[in-house]
Amino acid sequence: MTRRTTLSTFWLLVALATFLAPVVAAGESSATALLPIKNARIPLEGVLSGGQPTTEQIEAAARAGFSTVINLRTDQESGFEWEREAVESLGMRYVQIPVAGAEGLTHENIELIDAALREARQSGPVLLHCASGNRIGAVLSLRAAWLRDVEAAEALDYGLASGLTRLEGKTRELLDLEKPPSPE
């Protein structure tokens, strides 16, 4: 299979995933058919996001034509020490922008991630990950609001659809949104 065929297949799957996203049952996203990483999503054209990929999933990403892996995990986290070498040995570009939980949700980090995404997407599909996908959702929510002028509530919804979970409270705070009412 040629690289062009692989990329054509990828974009066909992206289009299919975008079309089917509203009807896919919770728990199994259509993106997992392409690369079954934990909490896989396609939050942006040409970007597959989710949790920490395995070595096999990194190899599958390379075979599928991905050009860049962007990792938001910090060096203090374990379980990805092998990743840079594996990614680069497969001919992909590796970018690490550490986002240390709620404290890492800064304008500076959002701008760095935005620049990395813009540059990486010019070369081909991108795998964007953290440990679970939670930071991805927070980052993409803040990116939408702060850098794309998306209304705060809509940006939060986008973040939730992109994997935001435990960082929802901090993301709401940074977006100047009220906390949701607690269930009684």
Task: Chart the SSEs and their pairings.
Elements: H1 3-20, E1 41-44, E2 47-50, H2 55-63, E3 68-71, H3 83-89, E4 93-96, H4 107-121, E5 126-129, H5 134-148, H6 152-161, H7 168-174
Parallel strand pairs: 2-5, 3-4, 3-5
Antiparallel strand pairs: 1-2
Briefly summarize what is shown.
With 184 residues, this protein is of the alpha/beta class. The chain is built from 7 helices and 5 strands, in the order αββαβαβαβααα.
Describe this structure in words.
Helix content is about 45%, strand content about 10%. A 5-stranded mixed sheet has the order 1-2-5-3-4, with helices on both faces. It contains 7 helices and 5 strands; from the N terminus they run αββαβαβαβααα. A hairpin with a 2-residue loop joins strand 1 and strand 2. It has a domain at about 5-10 and about 25-135: Protein tyrosine phosphatase superfamily (Protein-Tyrosine Phosphatase, Chain A, Alpha-Beta Complex). The protein is an alpha/beta fold. The longest helix has 18 residues, at about 5-20.
